[in-house]
Amino acid sequence: MMTFDNDTIQALLNLPDLAIERVVLGERKTLRIDVHSTLEGTQCHRCGKPIHHAYGLGNEIELRHLPLLEYRVLLI
Asked: Hey, is 48 helix, strand or coil?
């Protein structure tokens, strides 16, 4: 069985603005990768102005990424 550290998985995903919190090997060759953004601030979804402070966290979402070495990849 192959093992990868977070830096290797980060490089394979090629998503530089995300930090990996946890990787779990699930059922049916599924990698569940919990991530969070490393970007400072964002834009308001209504007016487009920059926002530099948080009002809280949104709901967790699950996104399917391209497969890695025959593993189904889910970003949480």
From this structure: coil
- Specify if 54 maps to a domain: yes
- Asked whether residue 1 carries a pLDDT value surpassing 60, the answer given is no
Banded model confidence at residue 59, pLDDT cuts 50, 70, 90 = confident
Does residue 43 have a pLDDT over 70? yes
Nearest of 75, 40, 73 to residue 54 by alpha carbon:
40
Contact of 29 with 70, CB cutoff 8 Å: yes
Average pLDDT over every residue of 27-44 = 87
Report the DSSP beta bridge partners of residue 65.
73
In this structure, is residue 65 part of a structural domain? yes
Kind plus residue range of the DSSP H or E element containing 65: strand 63-68
Q: Which residues contact residue 69 at a Cβ distance below 8 angstroms, ignoring those fewer than 6 apart?
A: 2
Cβ atoms of 35 and 45 closer than 8 Å: no
